């Protein structure tokens, strides 16, 4: 996995899957996170998503389905994570 500052836009091929010992690139794919600030999903993440949703610029960081737009499908995805209660830990805990 690559490294990025929390909340930073991600490239379409930021996630990389390696085969075997890690020397053969198997796939490169777009990745995103609901936790923009690295502290678990909270109010600041909701505010960031709302800014992206209503702002009209369609930043990659909130385009969770990768269709090029921050739309109702992305809102549904974010809301599921936000209200799902599975967001106490940030990504840094799982992906140091
Ligand atoms: Ca989208």
Biggest sheet record: 2 strands, antiparallel
Bound molecules: calcium ion
Strand content: 5-15%
Shape: globular
**SS content category:** alpha+beta
In spatial order, strands of the major sheet run 1-2
Poorly predicted parts = none
- What is the residue-mean pLDDT, rounded to a whole number? 78
Helix content: 25-40%
Q: How much is the radius of gyration in Å?
A: 14 Å
Total strands = 2
Per DSSP, the total helix count is 3
Order of helices and strands: EEHHH
Distance between the termini: 10 Å
Give the topology.
Elements lengths: L14 E5 L4 E6 L13 H13 L16 H12 L7 H4 L2
Antiparallel strand pairs: 1-2
The structure holds calcium ion.
Structure description:
The structure is a single chain. The chain contains three helices and two strands, in the order ββααα. Strands 1-2 form a two-stranded antiparallel sheet. It has 96 residues and is α+β, with helices and mostly antiparallel strands. Strand 1 and strand 2 form a beta hairpin. The protein has a domain at 34-84. It binds calcium ion (CA). The site of calcium ion has 8 residues, from helix 2.
